[in-house]
Structures are given as structure tokens and as C-alpha cells.
Amino acid sequence: MNIAAGTTVAALQAGLPLDPLENRILLCYALDLTRVGLITNSERVLNADEAARLSALVARRQAGEPIAYIVGQREFFGLPFHVTPAVLIPRPDTELIVELTLERLAPRARLLDMGTGSGAIAVSVAHTRPDAAVTALDVSAEALAVAAANAHANKADVRFLRSDWFAALGSETFDLIASNPPYIAGGDVHLAQGDLRFEPSGALTDFADGLSALRTIIQGAPAHLVAGGWLLLEHGYDQAEAVRALLLEAGYGEVQSWRDLGGIERVSGGRRG
């Protein structure tokens, strides 16, 4: 779309070829305006530079690039998170595992977030519960840099560790381990659709049956959980039964699944005996 200089903000709010929310987000970002500013500046006209900038942003969105990557930010658990193509875009479904974690963390408890990505789980917990000792790990140095920036921006005290799952933990133990690991099966058609086309494939899929990362975490977690410690895992919409079976087979107690706002069993977990 080629936006002409001299076009008003009001005309663009009504005429951009995106849904109204995306229109507002891109206009605010391109013109450095708040939501209220869009209203109070409705008759403002764009200069040539602004028109070119907005045209380029709209073209990127029309090509399918996620809004969060275009503007570099996504809200999660009431906090702003910087995002880049090095990390998954935080989704509302993942707020469930944060809520379940907060419910189970005793005062001054130790939390491990495995495969932290943008830091969404770790930073949200640390921000809400500053008494907790929160550790977050990821195998990607680029993801850890994004997560560390988010912790700093949200004044959350998180220790970050580069590790391929449990490899760098030594004999450390935690009161709770939470993870949103890659759980989409390799070859799944969804990987070639929508926002997933632009997100890091290694954070989405295990390139196998969708359960290999979950198996690794379930099998390795007991060595790093205190007695009675919880393991909480986010998984795919159709994986709850399989994850519960893996947890039971590994000897966890109180195995159960919890549903997200859409009614889908999104998180499963259990306690170390």
C-alpha cells in the first residue's frame, strides 16, 4: 500500500487495509503517538517521511510478518515484553502456567524456567513475587539477551543461564520447574501458517513427534526438584493425555491438567514424591 503525504490520521484509521486493532498499533508506532494521541491528533496530516514509514510497516504486515516483531513489543501478564525474531511471541495462553506457578510458590521459593525465550514466565513471576529466587535458562544466547533486557526493563530479578536443558545446572535443586518447551510435531502444517512462519522453528518444534522435549524435561526434572516440588509444562491442545501418561510413568504424584481460557487442556503437571 502506498500512503500519500497529506493524508490525515483520521482517514488512515478508517482506511488502512488491516483490522482496527492492528491499524491503531501501527499508526501509534509509526507516528509515535499514544492511543489518546490518535484521537487528539485525528486531523494531523502525514509528511512524506511519515507516509513512507507507515507504507513500509503496512507492507510488512500484509506480507504476514507478526505485529509484535514489527513494533518489537508484546504485552504479557500486564507487562511490556521486547520481542525479536530470536524468540517466540508471548501468548495469552501461557499466562495460565504463570498463574499456576504463582499459586504453588511458597515464600522465598526457588523457581526454574526452562527454555525461557523472551523471559515471559520468569520475568512475570519475578516481578509479581520479588521474594522468589528465579532462574531462567535457554540454549540460545540471542534469546537470553532478549530475556535479560526484559527483566531489566520490568525491574525483575532473574538469574539467566545458558544451558541445553539440564546440562549446566550441576546438582542445583528447585521448588518448582516450569517450562513452555517446543511441542509442535515436525512437519505440522501450522508451522507454515500465520505468525509461526516468522518465529524461531527451534522454539516451536522438536522436529520429531512433539513430545521429545517434554520427555527430556519430565525425565530429568526429579534430579533438580526438592521432595514435593512441582513440575508444570505447557503443551499442545491435543497432548494433555500423553503428557499425563509420561508424568505418571516417571513417578510423579498429583498428576493433572489445567484448562486455558478457551477451555483447552494447556498445562499439565505433577509433584516429585
UniProtKB/TrEMBL annotation:
Its EC number is 2.1.1.297. It comes from the Bacteria. S-adenosyl-L-methionine binds at residues 115-119, 138, 165, 180. Residues 13-72 form the Release factor glutamine methyltransferase N-terminal domain. Residues 102-191 form the Methyltransferase small domain. Substrate binds at residues 180-183. It catalyses: L-glutaminyl-[peptide chain release factor] + S-adenosyl-L-methionine = N(5)-methyl-L-glutaminyl-[peptide chain release factor] + S-adenosyl-L-homocysteine + H(+). GO terms for molecular function: nucleic acid binding; peptide chain release factor N(5)-glutamine methyltransferase activity. Keywords: Methyltransferase, S-adenosyl-L-methionine, Transferase. GO terms for biological process: methylation. PROSITE patterns: N6_MTASE. Methylates the class 1 translation termination release factors RF1/PrfA and RF2/PrfB on the glutamine residue of the universally conserved GGQ motif. NCBIfam families: hemK_fam, RF_mod_PrmC. Belongs to the protein N5-glutamine methyltransferase family. PrmC subfamily. This is Release factor glutamine methyltransferase.
